[in-house]
Design a protein that fits this description.
The protein has 504 residues and is α/β, with parallel strands linked by helices.
Length: 504
């Protein structure tokens, strides 16, 4: 499988690091110890073009290319007509003469690599290409290693580079993770909130850092509920997190974290950029910039407070902004009425409109998504029996099931395998409680189920997802070459899933 190929490559690279003094010297010059290098599984890819031919018995194995370890010089439809010998001659190792950073899924499986040169030549870093296991828009480097640090520190620290993550872990910040050479995405933010309710983004203070902060802000807004904390830290332009902590010390960096800009202020600053708030035109432009950002926020106290702040900065009454933006329903600020109590808006981390309470008459789950979550609530130990890809699939379920999946994973990370009775107690008073009570009927407690039943249900979800994606790509493949290639990948995965193959 791909996982086995990547694990074998990681073992090889790790052994090569120990046998390559100049790579070890490079890491020592960067201040890293052998202990932290071993914790993150750092390795070294030798400079040869076909080193992996001595590692894998069949260098022409398609899995090597699918895993992103080997490239084909003449890729494309024409290459499909080559003999294995001809194809083998056109192959070369993708990673050469680089320090290797294994990218692990949350469960610890190697799903890809990042490689850094030992000099300052460009490009400094390259990543594995997109594969069935690895997508840089979804994965975060160091998340597997940071799980305990996230609990200890209470927040996730998002930085920009592999070396920052490893160095910060050694310097007392084991809660750091990094995006993989791409802008922060909504999938990144959603994954972070599976493990912590607080996120601090760290950026350079230059123009590029400000642009990156803008993209992180946009990705974070849909998840900025009232019980979550999202902040933005800007370093002096001459520093990255690693160099700042080494020069100024951990206490100074911790102070920067404490002083990080909250999301509300970052939103206002982003909207006000290049706007002269002393002029009517500038204030109008400020409101125009702010509207899509504010609209992306989930309903709640934060969103309503920000509407008032936006009105104040625009020198307008709250009612004027409400009318200007034609707000109504849950977006409009609540009217004050004599004797009115506290707002019953859906709290914090639950985005979306308030729904009427479910009927007290319970009904058994009807679809595979509901069935899967019921089984996991009753048998939380089965979570670890599923693959990383299965976890991602369940997290992507629409609310409230995806939210319930995130809640369950946080419980397991903090408390380990938990019986249903303890989970039920932990859900008391939580907005998810009605959903869970509807899933877990009294009769369900007596069901005879096994983890194999859970896997069959998850496989049904995979088949539905992949069939829908195949259909979508088929419609555009005749005009989009990338869609044709993606269709081949999805079709392969679909056929594998139809055969109920796991871990691929």
């Amino acid at each position: 499988s791909l996982g086995e190929v990547l694990t074998k490559a990681a073992d090889f690279y790790r052994a090569q690091l120990k046998a390559t003094p100049r790579a070890v010297d490079y890491l020592k010059r960067r201040g890293l110890t052998g202990t932290v290098a071993a914790r993150f599984g750092l390795g070294f890819a030798p400079p040869g073009w076909r080193t992996l031919a001595g590692v894998f018995a069949a260098y022409d194995d398609p899995l090597l290319e699918e895993a992103g370890l080997v490239r084909q010089k003449d890729s494309g439809d024409a290459a499909e007509q080559q003999t294995p010998a001809e194809a083998d001659r056109g192959r070369y190792d993708w990673f050469r003469d680089r320090v290797m950073f294994p990218i692990r899924a949350v469960g610890g499986e190697v799903i890809g690599f990042g490689g850094r040169v030992l000099t300052d030549e460009k490009p400094k870093y390259i990543n594995s290409p997109e594969t069935p296991l690895f997508s840089k828009g979804r994965e975060l480097y160091g998340l597997h290693e940071a799980r305990q640090g996230l609990r200890q520190r209470g927040y996730a620290l998002v930085v920009e580079g592999y070396m920052d993550v490893v160095a910060l872990a050694q310097l007392g910040f084991p809660n750091a993770v990094a995006t993989l050479g791409t802008a922060c995405t909504a999938e990144h933010v959603q994954k972070l909130f599976r493990f912590s309710e607080a996120v601090v983004f760290s950026f350079d203070g230059d123009a590029a850092g400000r642009r990156a902060a803008g993209r992180a802000l946009e990705a974070s807004l849909p998840f900025a509920t009232d019980t979550r904390s999202i902040r933005f830290l800007f370093l002096p332009t001459e520093h990255d997190p690693d160099s700042f902590v080494r020069e100024k010390g951990a206490a100074a960096f911790e102070q920067l974290v404490e002083q990080a800009v909250p999301l509300s202020r970052q939103l206002l600053d982003a909207a006000a950029e290049s706007c002269d708030l002393a002029s009517a035109e500038g204030r109008a432009r400020f409101l125009a910039n702010a509207r899509p950002l504010w609209t992306a926020l989930p309903d709640g106290a934060l969103k309503r407070q920000l509407l008032g702040e936006l009105a104040r900065l625009a020198s307008l009454e709250l009612a004027d902004v409400t009318e200007l933006w034609k707000l109504g329903g849950s977006e409009a600020p609540p009217r004050s009425e004599p004797g009115a109590g506290a707002s019953s808006a859906r709290p914090a981390w639950r985005a979306g409109p308030v729904k009427a309470p479910r009927s007290t008459t319970r009904k058994a789950p009807t679809g595979p998504a509901e069935q899967a979550m019921r089984m996991l609530m009753l048998h939380s130990a089965w979570w670890d029996e599923l693959s990383t890809a299965d976890h991602e699939l369940l997290h992507a379920l629409p609310p409230p099931l995806g939210d319930l999946c995130a809640w369950l994973e946080r419980q397991l990370a903090e408390h380990g395998t938990t019986p249903w009775a303890a989970l039920a107690e932990g859900l008391a008073g939580d907005p998810l409680e009605p959903t869970v009570r509807a899933l877990v009927t009294d009769a369900a407690l007596e069901d005879e189920m096994s983890v194999a039943d859970l896997q069959r249900v998850v496989d049904q979800l995979w088949e539905r997802k992949l069939e829908a994606e195949r259909a979508r790509l088929s419609e555009i493949a005749h005009t989009d070459p990338d869609a044709r290639q993606r269709w081949r990948e999805v079709d392969l995965e679909w056929r594998r899933r139809k055969g109920l193959l796991r871990g691929v």
